[in-house]
Amino acid sequence: MQMAVAAFSSLLGGGGAAAGAGAGAAAAGAAGGAAIAGLGSPAAMILQGIAGATSILSGLAASNSQADAYEMKAADADFAEVDERSQGMARTTALKKELAAALGENDVKFAAAGIDLSGGVAEDTRQNLESDSAQEISIDRADTSARMGLHRSRAAGYRSLAKSTRKAGRLAAFAQGANLGLKLAS
């Protein structure tokens, strides 16, 4: 490190003490450091400015990366909502098919037994099956709606986190920039 400072300070004109060897290199490093602090104040300010700007840009990149991750999670939640809607429709269709099959089987059984399908036990059985099926479909639709709402809510939460993360990153960058400006001004 001292050798790098000595080399850098010699470029700035402060490395005259680096002519010696061995112990002279350490002395040159110390002299070079003093030269940067004394004569190289603009160079130190430039390096400090570069380091500060790099830190600011790194912080912004990190906050934007985190915000992008939250937005990807929001998109995943949106897709999960669409998937839940599709699955709900498939379940409803399956329940309706089961109802149609059960009604058909009962009609065949009652007709084979010679029972009138338009009234009595056959009609009561039909109404009970339809009522049970309608209740199952209603419950499934309510559950599907609740799960879809949960996915929507989750997506909105992730979008809010992304927005907040970006704002926090910009605010931190502004604060770092102001702090850097104060350091460079003093």
Describe it.
There is one protein chain. Helix 1 (2-11) packs across helix 2 and helix 3 (41-112) runs antiparallel to helix 4 (120-185). The protein is mainly α and 186 residues long. The protein has 2 domains: 1-39, no CATH class; 53-185. It is built from 4 helices and no strands. The radius of gyration is 38 Å and the shape is rod-shaped. 10% of the residues are buried. Residues 1-39 have low confidence and may be disordered. The chain crosses the membrane at residues 43-63.
Provide a concise account of the structure shown.
Helices cover 88% and strands 0% of the residues. It folds into two domains: 1-39, no CATH class; 53-185.
Most strands sheet: none
The overall strand count is 0
Q: Helix coverage percent of residues? A: over 70%
Question: Tally the helices: what do you get?
Answer: 4
Distance between the termini: 26 Å
| Shape summary | rod-shaped
Number of domains: 2
Output the helix-strand order: HHHH
Alpha-beta classification: mainly alpha
Instruction: Give the radius of gyration.
Output: 38 Å
Query: Which regions have little confidence, pLDDT < 50, spanning 5+ residues?
Result: 1-39
How much of the sequence lies in strands comes to under 5%
Report the average pLDDT across residues. 81
Keywords: Membrane, Signal, Transmembrane, Transmembrane helix
Signal peptide: 1-19
Transmembrane segments: 43-63
